[in-house]
Amino acid sequence: MNTIWADMRQGVDARLMETAGRIIASGGLVAFPTETVYGLGGNALDSDASAKIYRAKGRPSDNPLIVHIACLDSLEQIVSSVPEQAYMLAHSFWPGPLTIIMNRSAHVPSSVTGGLDSVAVRMPDHEIALALIREGGGYIAAPSANTSGRPSPTTAQHVRDDLDGKIDMIIDGGSVGIGVESTIIDLTEDIPMILRPGYISLEMLRDVLGEVRMDPGLHSRDPSFRPKAPGMKYRHYAPKADLTIVEGRAEDVRAAIDSLARDAASRGLTCGIIAADEDACGYHCGIVRSAGSRAREITISQHLFGILREFDDLGVDVIYSESFDTPQIGAAIMNRLMKAAGHHILKV
Ligand code: TXA
Ligand code: MG
Protein backbone atom coordinates (compact mmCIF):
# COMPACT_ATOMS: atom_id res chain seq x y z
CA MET A 1 0.00 0.00 0.00
CA ASN A 2 1.16 3.52 -0.81
CA THR A 3 1.16 5.59 2.38
CA ILE A 4 0.20 9.23 1.73
CA TRP A 5 2.46 11.73 3.54
CA ALA A 6 0.45 14.81 4.60
CA ASP A 7 2.62 17.71 5.73
CA MET A 8 0.66 19.82 8.23
CA ARG A 9 3.57 21.25 10.18
CA GLN A 10 2.28 24.73 9.37
CA GLY A 11 -1.24 23.88 10.60
CA VAL A 12 -4.34 22.07 9.38
CA ASP A 13 -4.54 21.80 5.58
CA ALA A 14 -8.29 21.71 4.83
CA ARG A 15 -7.99 19.75 1.59
CA LEU A 16 -5.65 17.07 2.98
CA MET A 17 -7.80 16.88 6.13
CA GLU A 18 -10.86 16.18 4.01
CA THR A 19 -8.98 13.30 2.38
CA ALA A 20 -7.90 12.05 5.83
CA GLY A 21 -11.51 12.18 7.06
CA ARG A 22 -12.69 10.23 4.00
CA ILE A 23 -10.05 7.55 4.67
CA ILE A 24 -11.26 7.15 8.27
CA ALA A 25 -14.95 7.17 7.28
CA SER A 26 -14.32 4.45 4.69
CA GLY A 27 -12.53 2.15 7.16
CA GLY A 28 -8.88 3.11 6.51
CA LEU A 29 -6.07 4.10 8.87
CA VAL A 30 -4.46 7.53 9.41
CA ALA A 31 -1.56 8.23 11.79
CA PHE A 32 -1.80 11.68 13.38
CA PRO A 33 -0.08 13.83 16.01
CA THR A 34 -1.49 14.44 19.47
CA GLU A 35 0.05 16.40 22.33
CA THR A 36 1.35 13.15 23.89
CA VAL A 37 2.54 10.82 21.11
CA TYR A 38 1.45 10.02 17.53
CA GLY A 39 -1.69 7.86 17.28
CA LEU A 40 -2.78 5.32 14.66
CA GLY A 41 -6.42 6.17 14.01
CA GLY A 42 -9.35 4.26 12.60
CA ASN A 43 -13.13 4.60 12.95
CA ALA A 44 -13.88 3.45 16.52
CA LEU A 45 -17.40 2.31 15.63
CA ASP A 46 -16.18 0.01 12.83
CA SER A 47 -14.82 -3.32 14.05
CA ASP A 48 -13.07 -3.98 10.72
CA ALA A 49 -11.05 -0.77 11.20
CA SER A 50 -9.89 -1.87 14.65
CA ALA A 51 -8.90 -5.26 13.22
CA LYS A 52 -6.72 -3.36 10.72
CA ILE A 53 -5.13 -1.36 13.55
CA TYR A 54 -4.17 -4.51 15.45
CA ARG A 55 -2.75 -6.01 12.27
CA ALA A 56 -0.69 -2.97 11.26
CA LYS A 57 0.87 -2.70 14.74
CA GLY A 58 1.26 -6.43 15.31
CA ARG A 59 -0.64 -5.81 18.55
CA PRO A 60 -2.29 -8.57 20.59
CA SER A 61 -6.08 -8.15 20.16
CA ASP A 62 -6.73 -8.44 23.92
CA ASN A 63 -5.08 -5.04 24.36
CA PRO A 64 -7.88 -2.45 24.07
CA LEU A 65 -7.73 0.84 22.17
CA ILE A 66 -8.46 4.38 23.37
CA VAL A 67 -11.47 6.09 21.74
CA HIS A 68 -10.66 9.72 20.92
CA ILE A 69 -13.46 12.29 20.82
CA ALA A 70 -13.57 16.00 19.94
CA CYS A 71 -16.52 17.21 22.02
CA LEU A 72 -18.00 16.24 25.36
CA ASP A 73 -21.45 15.45 23.90
CA SER A 74 -19.88 12.49 22.07
CA LEU A 75 -19.23 10.78 25.39
CA GLU A 76 -22.86 9.82 26.01
CA GLN A 77 -22.96 7.62 22.89
CA ILE A 78 -20.11 5.38 23.93
CA VAL A 79 -20.47 4.96 27.71
CA SER A 80 -23.42 3.39 29.56
CA SER A 81 -23.77 6.50 31.73
CA VAL A 82 -21.41 9.40 32.32
CA PRO A 83 -20.23 9.42 35.96
CA GLU A 84 -20.20 12.83 37.69
CA GLN A 85 -16.47 12.38 38.27
CA ALA A 86 -15.91 12.15 34.50
CA TYR A 87 -17.47 15.58 34.05
CA MET A 88 -15.23 16.95 36.80
CA LEU A 89 -12.14 15.50 35.13
CA ALA A 90 -13.21 16.62 31.66
CA HIS A 91 -13.83 20.12 32.96
CA SER A 92 -10.32 20.29 34.44
CA PHE A 93 -8.21 18.35 31.94
CA TRP A 94 -9.95 18.02 28.53
CA PRO A 95 -8.85 18.54 25.90
CA GLY A 96 -5.65 17.13 27.34
CA PRO A 97 -3.41 14.17 28.19
CA LEU A 98 -5.91 12.24 30.33
CA THR A 99 -7.71 9.01 29.37
CA ILE A 100 -10.79 8.06 31.39
CA ILE A 101 -12.04 4.47 31.71
CA MET A 102 -15.82 4.08 32.06
CA ASN A 103 -18.41 1.36 31.43
CA ARG A 104 -19.04 1.10 27.70
CA SER A 105 -22.31 1.30 25.76
CA ALA A 106 -23.41 -1.18 23.10
CA HIS A 107 -22.28 1.26 20.37
CA VAL A 108 -18.61 0.40 20.96
CA PRO A 109 -17.55 -2.81 19.21
CA SER A 110 -15.97 -5.30 21.60
CA SER A 111 -12.95 -5.53 19.27
CA VAL A 112 -12.08 -1.94 20.29
CA THR A 113 -12.25 -2.75 24.00
CA GLY A 114 -10.45 -6.08 23.74
CA GLY A 115 -13.63 -7.79 24.96
CA LEU A 116 -13.85 -5.68 28.15
CA ASP A 117 -17.10 -4.07 29.37
CA SER A 118 -15.27 -0.78 29.87
CA VAL A 119 -13.99 1.74 27.33
CA ALA A 120 -11.06 4.18 27.46
CA VAL A 121 -11.88 7.71 26.23
CA ARG A 122 -9.72 10.76 25.64
CA MET A 123 -10.11 14.22 24.08
CA PRO A 124 -6.64 15.16 22.80
CA ASP A 125 -5.34 18.72 22.99
CA HIS A 126 -4.09 19.05 19.43
CA GLU A 127 -5.60 21.02 16.56
CA ILE A 128 -4.84 18.35 13.94
CA ALA A 129 -6.14 15.48 16.09
CA LEU A 130 -9.38 17.32 16.86
CA ALA A 131 -9.91 18.24 13.19
CA LEU A 132 -9.34 14.61 12.14
CA ILE A 133 -11.82 13.30 14.73
CA ARG A 134 -14.49 15.74 13.53
CA GLU A 135 -13.80 15.08 9.86
CA GLY A 136 -13.74 11.29 10.43
CA GLY A 137 -17.16 11.05 12.10
CA GLY A 138 -16.49 11.85 15.76
CA TYR A 139 -14.95 8.66 17.18
CA ILE A 140 -11.39 7.59 16.44
CA ALA A 141 -9.84 4.50 18.01
CA ALA A 142 -6.11 5.14 18.29
CA PRO A 143 -3.27 3.34 19.97
CA SER A 144 0.19 4.85 19.77
CA ALA A 145 1.37 4.60 16.14
CA ASN A 146 4.37 2.31 16.73
CA THR A 147 4.96 -1.34 15.95
CA SER A 148 3.89 -3.21 19.09
CA GLY A 149 6.76 -3.36 21.60
CA ARG A 150 8.71 -0.36 20.20
CA PRO A 151 8.81 3.06 21.88
CA SER A 152 5.82 5.27 21.04
CA PRO A 153 6.46 7.68 18.14
CA THR A 154 7.09 11.32 18.96
CA THR A 155 7.70 12.41 15.34
CA ALA A 156 6.01 11.51 12.05
CA GLN A 157 9.33 10.02 10.89
CA HIS A 158 9.16 7.49 13.78
CA VAL A 159 5.71 6.47 12.48
CA ARG A 160 7.09 6.12 8.96
CA ASP A 161 9.96 3.94 10.23
CA ASP A 162 7.44 1.51 11.76
CA LEU A 163 4.33 1.66 9.58
CA ASP A 164 5.21 2.90 6.07
CA GLY A 165 3.31 0.84 3.49
CA LYS A 166 0.97 -0.62 6.12
CA ILE A 167 -1.41 2.33 6.61
CA ASP A 168 -3.20 4.81 4.33
CA MET A 169 -1.83 8.14 5.53
CA ILE A 170 0.64 9.75 7.93
CA ILE A 171 -0.04 13.34 8.99
CA ASP A 172 3.16 15.16 9.93
CA GLY A 173 2.42 17.76 12.61
CA GLY A 174 6.01 18.10 13.85
CA SER A 175 7.41 16.88 17.16
CA VAL A 176 4.91 16.29 19.96
CA GLY A 177 4.82 18.46 23.08
CA ILE A 178 4.75 15.92 25.93
CA GLY A 179 6.35 12.77 24.56
CA VAL A 180 4.89 10.15 26.92
CA GLU A 181 1.39 8.71 26.60
CA SER A 182 -1.64 10.05 28.48
CA THR A 183 -2.37 9.34 32.12
CA ILE A 184 -5.08 6.65 32.36
CA ILE A 185 -7.59 6.86 35.22
CA ASP A 186 -10.16 4.14 35.83
CA LEU A 187 -13.54 5.34 37.13
CA THR A 188 -15.08 1.85 37.22
CA GLU A 189 -13.24 1.16 40.48
CA ASP A 190 -14.73 2.18 43.89
CA ILE A 191 -11.75 4.48 44.34
CA PRO A 192 -10.53 6.08 41.08
CA MET A 193 -7.31 4.32 40.10
CA ILE A 194 -4.40 5.40 37.90
CA LEU A 195 -3.59 2.58 35.48
CA ARG A 196 -0.80 4.44 33.67
CA PRO A 197 1.07 7.53 34.92
CA GLY A 198 1.43 10.47 32.52
CA TYR A 199 1.66 14.25 32.40
CA ILE A 200 -1.44 14.60 34.63
CA SER A 201 -0.06 13.53 38.00
CA LEU A 202 -1.60 11.77 41.00
CA GLU A 203 -1.60 15.09 42.88
CA MET A 204 -3.41 16.92 40.07
CA LEU A 205 -6.09 14.20 40.00
CA ARG A 206 -6.46 14.25 43.78
CA ASP A 207 -7.00 18.01 43.67
CA VAL A 208 -10.09 17.37 41.54
CA LEU A 209 -11.44 14.04 42.84
CA GLY A 210 -10.15 13.71 46.39
CA GLU A 211 -9.16 10.10 46.90
CA VAL A 212 -7.24 8.52 44.00
CA ARG A 213 -4.88 5.56 44.11
CA MET A 214 -2.20 4.07 41.90
CA ASP A 215 -2.74 0.60 40.45
CA PRO A 216 -0.60 -1.52 42.82
CA GLY A 217 0.20 -3.80 39.87
CA LEU A 218 2.28 -1.00 38.30
CA HIS A 219 5.05 -1.29 40.85
CA SER A 220 4.97 -5.00 41.43
CA ARG A 221 7.52 -7.34 39.92
CA ASP A 222 5.44 -10.28 41.10
CA PRO A 223 4.01 -11.75 37.86
CA SER A 224 0.84 -12.89 39.66
CA PHE A 225 0.12 -9.24 40.53
CA ARG A 226 -0.63 -7.77 37.14
CA PRO A 227 -1.35 -4.17 36.15
CA LYS A 228 -5.04 -3.70 35.29
CA ALA A 229 -4.45 -2.00 31.92
CA PRO A 230 -3.71 -4.92 29.61
CA GLY A 231 -1.09 -2.88 27.74
CA MET A 232 0.97 -2.25 30.86
CA LYS A 233 1.84 -5.92 31.30
CA TYR A 234 3.81 -6.18 28.07
CA ARG A 235 7.53 -5.51 27.96
CA HIS A 236 7.30 -2.28 26.13
CA TYR A 237 9.47 0.46 24.77
CA ALA A 238 12.21 -2.10 24.86
CA PRO A 239 15.34 -1.03 23.01
CA LYS A 240 17.39 -3.77 21.34
CA ALA A 241 20.33 -3.14 23.70
CA ASP A 242 20.32 -4.05 27.40
CA LEU A 243 19.34 -0.95 29.36
CA THR A 244 20.32 -0.37 32.99
CA ILE A 245 19.10 2.55 35.11
CA VAL A 246 21.72 3.82 37.56
CA GLU A 247 20.39 5.45 40.73
CA GLY A 248 22.06 7.32 43.57
CA ARG A 249 23.57 10.73 44.35
CA ALA A 250 24.29 12.69 41.15
CA GLU A 251 28.09 12.53 41.41
CA ASP A 252 28.05 8.82 42.30
CA VAL A 253 25.81 8.07 39.33
CA ARG A 254 28.12 10.02 36.98
CA ALA A 255 31.16 8.18 38.27
CA ALA A 256 29.48 4.77 38.05
CA ILE A 257 28.16 5.28 34.51
CA ASP A 258 31.49 6.69 33.34
CA SER A 259 33.30 3.64 34.67
CA LEU A 260 30.71 1.21 33.23
CA ALA A 261 31.02 2.92 29.83
CA ARG A 262 34.83 2.62 29.88
CA ASP A 263 34.50 -1.01 30.86
CA ALA A 264 32.07 -1.64 27.97
CA ALA A 265 34.46 0.09 25.54
CA SER A 266 37.37 -2.02 26.72
CA ARG A 267 35.29 -5.11 25.90
CA GLY A 268 34.63 -3.76 22.41
CA LEU A 269 30.98 -2.87 23.10
CA THR A 270 29.27 0.33 21.97
CA CYS A 271 27.66 2.05 24.89
CA GLY A 272 24.82 4.59 24.89
CA ILE A 273 24.32 6.95 27.82
CA ILE A 274 21.08 8.78 28.63
CA ALA A 275 21.84 11.85 30.74
CA ALA A 276 20.30 15.15 31.79
CA ASP A 277 21.69 18.43 30.37
CA GLU A 278 23.10 19.13 33.80
CA ASP A 279 25.30 15.99 33.75
CA ALA A 280 25.95 15.23 30.09
CA CYS A 281 29.37 16.87 29.91
CA GLY A 282 30.59 14.68 32.80
CA TYR A 283 30.93 11.60 30.57
CA HIS A 284 34.07 10.82 28.63
CA CYS A 285 33.18 7.63 26.85
CA GLY A 286 30.26 6.19 24.89
CA ILE A 287 27.52 7.91 22.86
CA VAL A 288 26.02 10.47 25.22
CA ARG A 289 22.51 11.80 24.60
CA SER A 290 21.04 14.47 26.76
CA ALA A 291 17.29 13.99 27.21
CA GLY A 292 16.71 17.49 28.56
CA SER A 293 17.00 19.59 31.67
CA ARG A 294 15.92 18.46 35.14
CA ALA A 295 14.82 22.06 35.64
CA ARG A 296 12.40 21.73 32.67
CA GLU A 297 11.17 18.18 33.07
CA ILE A 298 8.97 18.25 29.97
CA THR A 299 12.12 18.44 27.85
CA ILE A 300 13.08 15.03 29.27
CA SER A 301 9.72 13.38 28.51
CA GLN A 302 9.77 14.93 25.02
CA HIS A 303 13.06 13.30 24.04
CA LEU A 304 13.17 9.98 25.89
CA PHE A 305 11.49 7.74 23.29
CA GLY A 306 13.38 9.36 20.43
CA ILE A 307 16.68 8.60 22.14
CA LEU A 308 15.72 4.94 22.66
CA ARG A 309 14.88 4.73 18.95
CA GLU A 310 18.12 6.45 17.97
CA PHE A 311 20.14 3.95 20.04
CA ASP A 312 18.36 1.13 18.17
CA ASP A 313 19.30 2.74 14.84
CA LEU A 314 22.91 3.17 15.95
CA GLY A 315 23.05 -0.45 17.05
CA VAL A 316 24.50 0.24 20.51
CA ASP A 317 25.14 -2.86 22.63
CA VAL A 318 24.45 -1.53 26.13
CA ILE A 319 22.66 1.54 27.47
CA TYR A 320 23.11 3.19 30.87
CA SER A 321 20.60 5.80 31.95
CA GLU A 322 20.42 8.29 34.76
CA SER A 323 17.21 8.29 36.79
CA PHE A 324 14.73 11.15 36.20
CA ASP A 325 12.49 11.32 39.22
CA THR A 326 11.24 14.85 38.51
CA PRO A 327 8.26 16.36 40.40
CA GLN A 328 5.31 16.17 37.98
CA ILE A 329 6.16 13.91 35.02
CA GLY A 330 8.86 11.90 36.83
CA ALA A 331 6.46 9.04 37.69
CA ALA A 332 5.57 8.68 34.00
CA ILE A 333 9.15 9.01 32.76
CA MET A 334 10.41 6.41 35.25
CA ASN A 335 7.50 4.05 34.52
CA ARG A 336 8.47 3.99 30.82
CA LEU A 337 12.20 3.83 31.53
CA MET A 338 11.75 0.96 34.01
CA LYS A 339 9.76 -1.00 31.43
CA ALA A 340 12.40 -0.30 28.80
CA ALA A 341 15.02 -1.55 31.26
CA GLY A 342 13.03 -4.65 32.20
CA HIS A 343 13.22 -3.21 35.77
CA HIS A 344 17.02 -3.50 35.74
CA ILE A 345 18.31 -0.92 38.25
CA LEU A 346 21.78 -0.46 39.67
CA LYS A 347 21.89 1.43 42.97
CA VAL A 348 25.19 3.17 43.70
O1 TXA B 1 -1.48 9.41 24.85
C1 TXA B 1 -2.11 8.40 24.52
O2 TXA B 1 -2.94 7.86 25.28
C2 TXA B 1 -1.87 7.84 23.11
C3 TXA B 1 -2.40 8.85 22.10
C4 TXA B 1 -2.33 8.33 20.70
O3 TXA B 1 -3.68 9.24 22.45
N1 TXA B 1 -2.49 6.55 22.95
C5 TXA B 1 -2.01 5.44 23.56
O4 TXA B 1 -2.70 4.28 23.25
O5 TXA B 1 -1.07 5.43 24.32
P1 TXA B 1 -2.14 2.82 23.52
O6 TXA B 1 -3.09 1.92 22.82
O7 TXA B 1 -0.75 2.74 23.11
O8 TXA B 1 -2.33 2.62 25.05
C6 TXA B 1 -3.62 2.41 25.58
C7 TXA B 1 -3.52 1.79 26.93
C8 TXA B 1 -3.10 0.34 26.88
O9 TXA B 1 -2.21 0.08 27.96
C9 TXA B 1 -4.42 -0.38 27.11
O10 TXA B 1 -4.26 -1.65 27.68
C10 TXA B 1 -5.15 0.57 28.03
O11 TXA B 1 -4.83 1.83 27.52
N2 TXA B 1 -6.62 0.44 27.96
C11 TXA B 1 -7.41 0.76 26.92
N3 TXA B 1 -8.70 0.48 27.21
C12 TXA B 1 -8.72 -0.01 28.47
C13 TXA B 1 -9.75 -0.50 29.33
N4 TXA B 1 -11.02 -0.52 28.95
N5 TXA B 1 -9.38 -0.93 30.57
C14 TXA B 1 -8.08 -0.91 30.96
N6 TXA B 1 -7.06 -0.45 30.17
C15 TXA B 1 -7.37 -0.02 28.95
MG1 MG C 1 1.17 2.13 22.96
Features:
alpha/beta; binds magnesium ion; binds threonylcarbamoyladenylate; five-stranded parallel sheet; eleven-stranded mixed sheet; 348 residues; 16 strands
Give an overview in words.
By secondary structure, the chain is of the alpha/beta class. It is built from ten helices and 16 strands. It has helices at residues 14-25, 47-57, 75-78, 84-93, 127-135, 156-163, 202-209, 250-266, 297-314, 330-340; strands at 4-7, 30-32, 39-43, 66-68, 98-103, 118-122, 140-141, 169-172, 183-186, 193-196, 213-214, 242-247, 271-275, 287-290, 318-321, 345-347. It has an eleven-stranded mixed sheet, with helices on both faces. The chain has a five-stranded parallel sheet with strand order 14-13-15-12-16, sandwiched between helices. Strand 9 and strand 10 (193-196) form a beta hairpin. Helix 1 (14-25) crosses helix 5 (127-135) and helix 9 packs parallel to helix 10 (330-340). The longest helix is centred in the last third of the chain and has 18 residues, at 297-314. The chain is globular, with a radius of gyration of 20 Å. The mean pLDDT is 95. It binds threonylcarbamoyladenylate (TXA) and magnesium ion. Threonylcarbamoyladenylate (TXA) binds at residues 34, 36-37, 39, 63-66, 99, 101, 113, 116, 118-120, 122, 124, 142-144, 181-182, 184, 195, 228-232.
The number of distinct β-strands equals 16
Mean pLDDT: 95
Q: Into which percentage range does the β-strand content fall?
A: 15-25%
Large-scale geometry = globular
The largest beta-sheet arranges its strands as 1-8-2-3-7-4-6-5-9-10-11
Helix content, binned percent: 25-40%
